[in-house]
Amino acid sequence: MHGTRGKVFGVVAAIAATGLLAACGSNDSTAKSTPTLTTTKTTAAAPATPGDATPSTDQQAPQAAPDAGTPSSTVERPAPVPSQFITTPNGSPALSDKEKSFLDDLKKAGITPGSPDIAITAANLVCQGKSENAPQDQIITYVTAIAGSDPSFDPSKMTVEQAGKIYYDVASKSYCNK
Q1: Distances in whole angstroms, Cα of residue 27 to Cα of each of 23, 30, 34, 35, 146
Q2: 142 Cβ partners below 8 Å, 6+ apart?
Q3: Phi and psi of 87, rounded to 5°?
Q4: Tell me: the pLDDT tens digits for 63-101?
Q5: Quick one: pLDDT at residue 28?
Q6: Residue 84: which of 73, 95, 75, 97 has the closest Cα?
Q7: In angstroms, rounded to a whole number, what is the distance separating the alpha carbons of residues 171 and 163?
Q8: What's the whole-model pTM score?
Q9: CA 51 to CA 74: how far, in whole Å?
């Protein structure tokens, strides 16, 4: 009797799952056309002066959206990219002096990360952990995991635990509080 209940439950669950998946698989779209960007310009009414009998109401009527084939007479220019988002030719963000100094100190300690992003992430983790009074061994555990995930890490040069400790020490001295 218990075997029949299990089979019935399994069949009901399979049918319910199939029904849910079939309902989610619909490719019915409600989009009817491609949206266009429209802008409207209005100018505020000029303030009435004490001598004027009627206030000025100069407002431009909303402009119709340009056709896709008609070029726009005004060209919008994007704002300049903030310096923290400017990237180097290899695609990584430009490094600050603090970050460059940290990477140099890591190299002096025997670690050359495959990407500056990996080392900076580890350093930020150390600083954040110290600012939150996390236990040192816990911070080193996380930093060790980051060091071990670096594709350029060579276990024949040092253990991953040694690399994690070096990251922690160098970040504490030359990255945090600077």
Answers
A1: 10, 10, 18, 20, 42
A2: 125, 129
A3: -110, 160
A4: 555 555 555 567 777 766 555 554 444 555 678 889 999
A5: 55
A6: 95
A7: 12
A8: 0.49
A9: 38
Nearest one of 133, 125, 118 to 176, comparing CA atoms: 125
HEC per residue, the chain: CHHHHHHHHHHHHHHHHHHHHHHHCCCCCCCCCCCCCCCCCCCCCCCCCCCCCCCCCCCCCCCCCCCCCCCCCCCCCCCCCCHHHCECCCCCECCCHHHHHHHHHHHHCCCCCCCHHHHHHHHHHHHHHHHCCCCHHHHHHHHHHHHHHCCCCCCCCCCHHHHHHHHHHHHHHHCCCC
Q: Which residue has the tokens 């300690």?
A: 109
Give the whole-angstrom CA distance, residue 102 versus residue 111. 11
| Residue 125 vs residues 107, 130, 132, 160: alpha-carbon distances, Å | 19, 8, 11, 17
HSE-up of residue 4 (Cα within 13 Å, Cβ side): 1
Question: What is the tens place of the pLDDT at every residue in 143-166?
Answer: 999 988 888 888 889 999 999 999
Query: What is the mean pLDDT of the segment spanning 48-53?
Result: 52
Whole-Å CA distances, 101 to 29, 105, 119, 166: 54, 6, 12, 15
Neighbour count for residue 149 (Cβ, 10 Å)? 13
